[in-house]
C-alpha cells in the first residue's frame, strides 16, 4: 500500500485537555525500540497475566525499569521484581529512556522521569478493555504511550466509564501522552485486526512509561 506519510515529519494532534498525540514521533527509533523489547523479553518473557477475577488477559505483557506492573491474587501492583523469576525487572534500554524524554518534552511534560515501562504485545484479537491507569501513586506524572507495529483502534473517553469515547487509529510510531486533567481518563484498545508489519510481523507492541513511585 502506498503510504503518503512515509517520509513526513512527525506532527501533533490535540486529544483532550493535557493529552496529545505525537504522530510518527517514534518512527525513526522504532528499530532500536524493537531491539530493546527483544532484549527485555529474553530476561523477562512476555506472559498472559491473570486478573484477580481469574480472567487471562489477551494482551501479553512484560516490564522494564525499576518497577513493573503485574497482577496477583489480591490485585494489581508495581513490584521491583518479576514474579516469574523473582529477579529484578531488566533496566530500561537507553533507546526507551531517550524517546520517552523527547516525547514528554514535546507534549509539555519536561520533568517526567519514568521508573516503570509496561510492554504490551497484541496478537490478532487481543484487546484491552476500557480502564483507567490508576495504580500509580503520583498522578502529577503523565503516561507516555508508544505504538509499534500493526495499527489498533484506541478509545479515549473521560473520567466516567460511560463518557463518550473518541476512537482513533494508532499507527506505527505514534506516541500518545496524557496527564493533567486527562490523567485518569478511561481508555482501551479494540481487538487487533490481523496483519503483517515489516518490523513486528503479526503483532502490535505498546510501551507505556509511568512514574510508579511517589517522589516529593
Ligand atoms: C494501556 O492502556 O496501558 C495500553 C494502551 C495501548 O496499548 O495503546
Ligand atoms: Fe492504560
UniProtKB/TrEMBL annotation:
Family annotation (InterPro entries): Alkb (IPR004574), AlkB-like (IPR027450), AlkB-like_sf (IPR037151), Oxoglu/Fe-dep_dioxygenase_dom (IPR005123)
EC code(s) of this entry: 1.14.11.33
GO function terms (MF aspect): broad specificity oxidative DNA demethylase activity
Domain named Fe2OG dioxygenase: residues: 113-213
Gene3D superfamilies in the record: Alpha-ketoglutarate-dependent dioxygenase AlkB-like
EC class name: oxidoreductase
Cofactor annotation: Fe(2+)
Signal peptide region: none
Keyword field: Dioxygenase, Iron, Metal-binding, Oxidoreductase
Entry protein name: DNA oxidative demethylase AlkB
Gene: alkB
